[in-house]
Design brief:
The chain is α/β, with parallel strands linked by helices and about 350 residues long. Helices cover about 50% and strands about 15% of the residues. Belongs to the bacterial sugar transferase family.
């Protein structure tokens, strides 16, 4: 059975690839198997689509004409309909930026009644370029502009179970013997607590205390200024544990308490969160899910000190991608990359 299923999957896959590439070659060499299309509207997206159709004949589309809808929109729309019928056009691509709701409905009615395929280009209506989630409340259609997998109960349970198991393994297997050793080393070099706690913003912007091994001498500006390269506040032991990311390990207690997750957007100190929320577009979106000890942005090199707006902008982009595309496999991949980066050492780990 295993041999039969494996052989069948390979054979079907090879057949599909053969047909796919054969059709693409057939379109280029013999000019057949094309879908005839027209474009309605103008603008950047229309120009890009024209170039795509003209430069990629192997995809099977043949652009017959573009209707710019100027100077007379009504006449151009009627001319388009006549052209489609007379020339046996298969598909119409419309730029939504050029059409009113009434005109959009007119195109929908025309294509439905004449067995033509209608597709839209979002253009400046960027909301329509998203992965929209379509749902019904009774008979009322509802569209959500952002899909967050962790809003689903099953995914929450899976992620929480993984967080608890993983954090217990680290706490029992590593922190149980590491804490006494680091406690001695930290206290020998400087006075103060072994642990450092700081208010951070988490899920739904709620504040919580984030725990770390103390890596700096006691100072009054710890809650105001990020650590910078060659920061005089950092102790010798602190330099080592920051370089290896050991200082972050107490956050597994935060995970066990439910304030954080193993993987998620990195939480910022409260003063910085308020500052970035005012300056950086969509910064607050990252608070739809729990913050993490590590995250996708950190594995891509955007960790540590924020030296310019570019650092935080890309961090936010990766965080939003993560919350919209979460999976347990993605979490495992991020954890693996984090461990690899910690072993190799990172430029901004200071």
């Amino acid at each position: 059975m295993i041999q039969f299923v494996s052989f069948s999957l390979i054979l079907v896959g090879l057949a599909k690839f053969f047909i796919y590439f054969s059709l693409r070659r057939f379109r280029v060499v013999f000019g057949g198997n094309f879908r005839r299309v027209v474009i309605v509207g103008n603008g950047k997206s229309v120009t890009q689509l024209e170039e795509f159709f003209n430069e990629n004949p192997d995809y099977g589309y043949k652009l017959e004409k573009t209707f710019t809808l100027v100077p007379n929109k009504k006449e151009q729309v009627e001319e388009c309909f006549n052209f489609v019928m007379e020339n046996k056009i298969d598909e119409i691509y419309c730029s939504l930026a050029e059409l009113s709701n009434a005109e959009v409905n007119k195109f929908i009615d025309f294509t439905d009644n004449n067995l033509k395929i209608l597709k839209f280009l979002p253009d400046n209506k960027e909301v329509l370029a998203r992965n929209l989630i379509f749902d019904y409340y009774d008979y009322i259609p509802i569209i959500s502009i952002r899909n967050i997998p962790l809003d689903e109960t099953a995914n929450k349970v899976i992620k929480r179970a993984f967080d608890i198991i993983f954090s217990l393994v680290v706490i029992i297997g590593i922190l149980s013997w590491l804490i006494p050793i680091l406690a001695i080393l930290i206290r020998i070099e400087s006075k103060g607590s072994v642990f450092f706690k700081q208010k951070r913003n988490g899920l739904n912007y709620k504040e919580f205390y984030c725990y770390k091994f103390r890596s700096m001498r006691l100072n009054e500006i710890a809650d105001l200024y990020q650590v910078s390269k060659n920061d005089p506040r950092i102790t010798r032991v602190g330099k080592f544990i920051r370089k290896t990311s050991i200082d972050e390990l107490p956050q597994f207690f935060n995970v066990l308490l439910g304030d954080m997750s193993v993987v998620g957007p990195r939480p910022h100190m409260v003063s910085h969160t308020e500052m970035y929320a005012r300056r950086i577009d969509k910064f607050m979106v990252r608070h739809f899910i729990k913050p993490g000890i590590t995250g996708l942005a950190q594995t891509k090199g955007f960790r540590g000190e924020v030296e310019s707006d570019k650092d935080i902008i890309y961090r936010v982009k990766f965080d939003i991608f993560y919350l919209e595309n979460w999976s347990l496999l993605l979490d495992i991949k991020i954890i693996f990359l984090t461990v690899v980066n910690a072993i190799k050492g990172e430029e901004k780990a200071y």
